[in-house]
Structures are given as C-alpha cells and as structure tokens.
What does this fold into?
Amino acid sequence: MKMAKLPRETFHVRQLTAKNALKRSTQETTVLVCAGTGCVANGSMKVYEYLKNACQERGINVAVSLREEAGEKGIHLKKSGCHGFCEIGPLVAIEPMGIIYTHVHEADCDEIIEKTLLGGEVIERLLYQFEGKTYRSRDDIPFYKGQKRVLMKNSGKSDAEDINEYIANDGYAAFEKALFEMTDVEICNTIIDSGLRGRGGGGFPTGRKWDSVRKNKADVKYVVCNGDEGDPGAFMDQGVMEGNPHSIIEGMLIAGLATGASEGYIYVRAEYPLAVERLRIAIAKAEEMGLLGDNIMDSGFNFHMHINRGAGAFVCGEGSALTASIEGKRGMPRVKPPRTVDHGLWEKPTVLNNVETFGNVPQIILKGAAWYRSIGTGNSSGTKTFALTGNVVNTGLVEVPMGTTLREIIFDIGGGIKNGKKFKAVQIGGPSGGCLTEEHLDMPLDFDSLKKLGAIIGSGGLVVMDEDTCMVEVARFFMHFTQNESCGKCVPCREGTKRMLEILERIIHNEGSEEDLDLLEELSNTISSTALCGLGQSACKPVMSTLKYFRNEYLYHVRDHHCPICDGAKRHPVIDPEKCKGCGKCRKNCPMEAIEGSAKKPHVIDGAKCINCGACIQNCPFGAIEEG
Amino acid sequence: MKQDLSRASEIIERYDCAEHNLIAIMQEIQAEYKYLSQDVLLLIAQKLDISAARVYSVATFYENFSLEAKGKNIIKICDGTACHVRKSQPIYEAVHQYLGLTGKKKTSDDGMFTLETVACLGACSLAPAMMVNNEVHAKMTPESALELLESMRREEAAQ
It folds into this structure.
C-alpha cells in the first residue's frame, strides 16, 4: 500500500496550526471582499485589486491567506464567499470591527484605507440604510436577522479559496470522525435519523438512498453531485459551490465512506464558470494536502474527484440524464426503475445528491442527528436556502429553518414588495413548481405542506410577483422554457408541451376561447401522468396552479379579449371628435352595436360593449379612430 | 481554406481519446476554435473510434455547442424568470436591432458580436443580467447595454 500523504497525526497538526492562525487573524484587521457571482458582476474584483495595491503602496503588510507564522503584523485581505445580499453589493466586510460596507467601488477604497483601516473610523455613507435607519453590522440588518445560517454559516465570513480556513472552521473534522470512528452502517443511520431530505427538489430521504447503495454489491460504486442548477431564478447551489466548495467535497467523501464508493463526480452547469473555478481550486488543494487520493490518512480509503461541466441542457438536472451526460452521451432520461441507486453511472450503484444536500452532511456527522432534527419541522428537518428574487425589495440568498412562513421570508427578510406595490403571488420551484398566493402567506414552508398544494420546494427559487404581473404570461413563460428544454425523447412532453405553448400563446394574444382552458387542463393531466421523467411530469404545474388561483386572469384574455394587466386600462378604440365627421360607417360596421351617435355629429364607442375587434378603425374614411 | 486541426488533435489526445470525455473534448475545442466545424467533428469521430453520427448527435443535443462560426464576442442576455419579470426582453430587442440581426441570424455582419439568450446566469438579484464573454454585467437597461457594446466597438477600433 502506498504511504499516506497526510497521516492522521499530520492532519491534527494542520488543524491546530490553522485554528491558531485563524485565531490570530481575528485579532488583526481583516477585510473581506465578496467574490460571489453577484458582487463580481458589480465590480468587486476591481475593488479587491485596488485595495491590495493601495495598501501595499502605503507600506501596509497585506496577507491574502492565513499566516501560519505568528509575529507579523498587517491586514488580511480575503475573497469571501457570497453574503447572499447581492442587491447591495459589492460588499466589503471589515473585522473585528464588525462593519459591512455596501455598494463599494474603487473610488471609495482610499477613504476606506485612510479612515477605517488606519483610523478606525466608520464611514457612515457606505453603511446599509433602510427605512431611515443605518446599520453597522451585518447581523443587525433585517435581511439577515430573520435567517438561520447552517449551510452558509461561514459564507461571506471566510475565504472560499483557502483550504486552511475551512480546516480552521472544523472542516474535514467530520470526515475524519466518519473515517476512524464510524462504520458505514453508522454513517447511514446517522443521516437517516437526522431526517435530511434531498434538497434538489424531490425531497427523498438522503440516508435511505445511501443505505440502498451501501447494500448493493458491486465492484465499483459512484458518488455524484448534481450541481446542474438549471431552474431559472435559482442560484443557491451556485452560492455554496462558490462560497464553500470544501463542504461539498467533504460531504461526498463521507458519502463514499458510507456506501463504499471511491470515485466522485461533480456536474456543474456551464453558466457557472466561477463555481467551476472554485471547485477546481478546492479539489486541487485537497489532493495536494492528501485529503483526496489513495490511502487517505493511512486508512486504506481511496477517493478521487472529477468535475464535469454541463453544456447547456436543462434536462441534465434529471438524475438519469445527468449520468448519461457524464458518460459523454446525449443527456436524455431513461425509464425507471431501475433506479440510480441500483443502476446509475456506468450501470453501477450510484449516490446522486444535490449540492446543498452534500453541504449539510459534514455538520450532521459532527453535531449529530438530534441537533439537525432540532431545526425545522417534523418531517422536514434542517434549514433550506432560497433564492429570493423578482419584485421584492431585498433580493438574494436566504437560509431559514424549514417551516418558516412565506410572510416571514418575503416581508421580514425580503422587506416587502418593491415600489409599494401589492403582493400577488410567488412562484416556487421554477418550471416544475407552482405559485402560491396571499392565502398561503402564513403557511409553514416544508416538503409536505407544499406537495399538498401542488407546488414543490424544488431547488428553492422564489420569484415574487406584484400586482402588475399577468399570471397567464408567467404560465406562458414557463411553458416556453420547458418546451425549449424538452429533450424530445417521449411524445407527451415533446408534443404535449408544444401544443400547450401554442394554446397559451393564443390566449395571451386574446385570440383564445373558454374551451382552450378545458383543453389546457386535459393536456396537463395527460402529460403529467404519461411523461417519462420529472421534467415532463411537472411541466404543467405552473399552468395548473395559475389556472387554479388566477382563473379570472385567463378569463380576461379568453372572454373579454382584453387583459387589464397586459393591455393596460385603455381597452377599446377611441374616436377623435375633431376628426369625426359623423358619417356613421363605424356604427354600421360594429358587430357589437357598441357605437352610438347621430348623423354629422361625432360618434362615441361604448367601452362596456366593445370587443376590440378593430372593424371601426378599418372602416373609418377619415382616420379618426385610434387603436386602444 | 482548410482549417488547422493540430490543436484539436492535441486536445483529443490529452483526453486519452476516451469516449466518455466526448463532451469535455468538444467544449475545449469550441473554446479554441469558437465553433465545431464538420472537419473537427469527423476528426473526433475518427480518433475516438465512434461513428460520426454519434458525435453529431451529442453536438446538436447541447445548447452550448455551435456548428457555425460565432462572432468575436458572445453576448448572452439572461431570460431567466427573475430577469424576465424585471424586463429583460426590451434589452434583447434593443441589442438585436443595434446589431442589425434579422430572422435566424445571430452574428453581426462585421463578425464582432453574436447574440444569444441564456436561461439563467444565477445573478438573479442583479436582474436583468447580461453576460459578455465570461463577464456578468448587472442591472442592465437597453441604453446601458448599447453603451457597453459601443464602448467595445470603440476599443476594437482603437487597437
């Protein structure tokens, strides 16, 4: 057997060194520049570079990673993971002062160095302000106050690219515990007892999945992490992959121990280049240190990790399509059973879990199943991250215990609806989910309560819609998405979604009829009971749920042929009294007898009767009628 | 003009000519050549010892692979849910018009830009978002999008 690169004792030394270094660094000034996709898009890397150069020019000693040696003085400059509150980025946190600056640009950097870093003074104008109040520390901001961060505990507070910092925060300690102190059965049982359920959408008990793979006899088994977060409006997994990549690796290592697998694959969607980059760095660092590879810590356990980049197919988020894609094939789902736990990647037993699920594993192993169960509700334990977006004041990543109500998320954390508008609905679970309305605001969000309502937690996208959003248009949007992403293998999805989209397009253009609504329902039922995979089966959910809760808006389109939301209040043509000669042609041609007026006097259109057919406009010889 | 395929050969060999690396191979070749030409696809089939139909089937399945030459800069306008409800469509239309694109044409006549849409960039808090090459730009408007493209044109002209 090969000598271990990192014997257990050496790991303990590393742990101690890292913990001491972190402890020392907390006594020095640390500047954390957010390096999540959102803040990078707002220019945070320019801020980082500027701060680094400007500090060095002033002769300040800048450390960009934890210093293992004591004695040196200076400041720490770190690229942190996503804080979650991307709306107010680029974010710069300064510790141990405990302040957070918002909307920081290069122009603010000199002032920050002079006043705050050197002078210890707080710059008021860069602090977060909301409803007339100024907030100095992150944890006081209402957006963070209502949250409970387990998975994202260190996101925004530590350096995402530094493995030592992860180790200093108890990283890989759970793996070490599982490796030396637990049997595979004990690991599976702990995960079963914790009540952890798949965070990718289905909510299947994770421990039971692992146990099935463990019991399967095979020469090779695999652990696969689904990071193909394709739901539009969802970016929780992105936050974890970018901000805490080692937690995913550690979770996968533990899954490997529990099931007897020694190969791991992470499948990341192509649109997340930064997540791929961070994971690559994390894997390389873990390999270099000896936490991945052969005979890890002299235990005889081997584990190797690979990254696969997606190539832009939403359907690859489905388990069997994802494994097909890793094998280099077209990413098309297959008929199940056999399930992935029996025949997964390369026909071998495979553990396939979502990013967030793996991310929760280390803390469960470390703190125990009972601790995890104490968070959340009966059948849905733990926390859930949500991507809160749309017409809401505070958008961003939110982590709350399962069972938190929508009202708490949207109004307490999210700060309510943008521009003082009225709340109408929230779309949950993306193209496979449904919408929830005012009446559901006080319902606790967990797997089972949502299932009853025909929605799903899904991956966790929450898109808030205000009164100006037409729900028929929302349904059409999602159907267009699903239609576009249908892989084409089964007829119900390939043809059915196409027909449904055609009907919805017709309705949106006010050319539909009431029978179309029945047709939509019939097609929905057929597709959801006959499509091959989850994507097809749930494709109709947005239509079904909008039809259920917002039938009146469909009726605007099919009965009145005018939607006050899409088409505005002015709903019928208007006759310009200046131009009208009172010839009566429009009156005679109106099929609804909606135009009144006597000869040679300007005519008037009765809005209550008008169906907006346009016959009057076509027949007016004077061009006196304007479109509504 | 015959395409120089030596870089493509190198990439395929680096991936051990292994069939399961097909997608990774095509991704890397596309990054190098900007698209997958017929010659490239045939070369892959030959080196991996699989049928050309199999290579073609994978190349056409995934949205990211392009069988036609693309422009120098790739613009992706996000049409995810969050961007959609914060009005990303007018941005697409403005850029579309600015680049003089019609019908199925996605690349501007000068070969500078290719316009695409993407389902979600994961920058939903900063909607509407737009990606130019690999850089995400936040909170765009039709005006700021055009301004960005114009500044890129100016930079190009200056060089």
